[in-house]
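User: Let's play a game. I give you a shape written as tokens, and you guess the letters that built it. Ready? Here's round one.
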């Protein structure tokens, strides 16, 4: 007799919000499923903090603001609710009508990849980010390979550029730059 897989439970965004209010760990919501997010390493946290500080200095006094991984993001177009490592919002933050704790208008998101999540972050999650109307750029930081991938929207198409040690990542949507060496040094000193 063949085994039959158990039916998947389909959660609503409201179910997710209820869980997030009492949970001790963060969760991501996508396609009716709720996933626990992996904890980061000191290297991961140091790289994210360095990027937050670098962008914060460059954007200070302008219309854009940098947020840490505490920011709750919901991409209404795709239904993804998550906590990017770094998020930049230009202008006033727009809140999700179902959850005032979730913003819906990121301009740039940064994800520091972990070995356990790199495939997902470069694949399915990146595709969700790219379907967000407000996003102009997605930055993926791979500490294992010591590279930074910059995905930028041009017209209705996304372009990928890769940067390594000694190079500068120019995020045109923000008129900001990040030295790859600065990110790598921060993660090595963690």
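Assistant: Ready! My guess for every position:
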């Amino acid at each position: 007799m063949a085994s039959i897989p158990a039916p998947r439970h389909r959660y609503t965004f409201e179910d997710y919000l209820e869980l997030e209010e009492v949970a001790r760990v963060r969760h991501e919501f996508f396609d009716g499923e709720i996933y626990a997010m992996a904890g980061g390493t000191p290297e991961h946290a140091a790289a994210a903090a360095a990027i937050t500080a670098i962008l914060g200095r460059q954007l200070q006094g302008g219309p854009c603001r940098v947020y840490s991984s505490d920011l709750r993001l919901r991409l209404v177009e795709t239904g993804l609710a998550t906590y990017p490592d770094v998020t930049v919002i230009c202008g006033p933050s727009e809140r999700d009508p179902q959850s005032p704790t979730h913003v819906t208008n990121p301009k740039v998101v940064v994800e520091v990849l972990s070995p356990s999540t790199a495939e997902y972050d470069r694949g399915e999650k990146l595709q969700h980010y790219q379907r967000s109307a407000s996003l102009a750029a997605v930055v993926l930081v791979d500490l294992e390979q010591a590279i930074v991938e910059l995905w930028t929207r041009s017209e209705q198409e996304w372009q990928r550029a890769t940067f390594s040690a000694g190079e500068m990542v120019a995020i045109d949507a923000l008129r900001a730059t990040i030295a790859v060496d600065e990110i790598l040094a921060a993660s090595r000193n963690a």
